[in-house]
Amino acid sequence: MNDQSARGMLLADQSFLAFRDLLFRGEVRAGQLVSISELMEKTGFPLAPVREAVKHAESTGLVRILPKRGVLIIEPTPDTVRSCFHLRCMLDQEGARILAARLADAPMQALREEHAAVRNQALEGITPELQQWAMAVDWKLHRALAGSLDNPLAAQVYASNHDRITVLQQSRRLLPERIIPAMDEHLRIIDAVLAGREEDAMRAVRAHLAGTLRWWGIGLSEA
């Protein structure tokens, strides 16, 4: 590979990361149709790397390229939302089972303390800063569950799905009333793992899926 092609690959990677940051910050939102020229302006990258970035994003399910129309960001339809969270649930269940079988303690105990701290603070009052902290803590558990699989292929799938869910979540406002139920659902997962109760841990993960879909107005019966 010559220096010019290596530089082109680097620009494409940088362009993709810049595009993904726009999605994560909600500057380009789920369901929005944008043009390549708009993305060039927003990312500050030239045509070729932006096109490569969009192709990469399409391969991971973040967007659809509509010929002669533009780039359609993943849409928060019930089917898409259900599919993304169900995929996460399937991987999380196995992760919870593995951690419970190992009687994991140190990482899970630290996570439990952080979840409890978020919950206790939410009881006193919910601020925008607490909402951001709650989301970060929420993802910490999901990453811990996925990480316990110790499977590079599963890790790739999980990472792509994390990106899709993050973009989908930008399409909805944060609901303060969801923080305490979500922390409670997570605490039940963690407690089952710490107690070595594999089936209970998996059941708690499925209950968390149901709670999440209810927040989106989607029932499990529709799956």
Secondary structure layout plus pairing:
Elements: H1 3-25, E1 33-34, H2 36-43, H3 47-59, E2 63-66, E3 70-73, H4 78-101, H5 106-124, H6 128-147, H7 152-169, H8 176-194, H9 198-215
Antiparallel strand pairs: 1-3, 2-3
Please summarize what this structure is.
With 223 residues, this protein is mainly α.
Q: Overview of this structure, please?
A:
With 223 residues, this protein is mainly α. 73% of the residues lie in helices and 4% in strands. The protein contains nine helices and three strands, in the order H-E-H-H-E-E-H-H-H-H-H-H. Helix 6 runs parallel beside helix 8 (176-194). It is globular, with a radius of gyration of 19 Å. The mean pLDDT is 91. Residues 15-73 form the HTH gntR-type domain. It holds the Pfam family GntR. GO terms for molecular function: DNA binding; DNA-binding transcription factor activity.
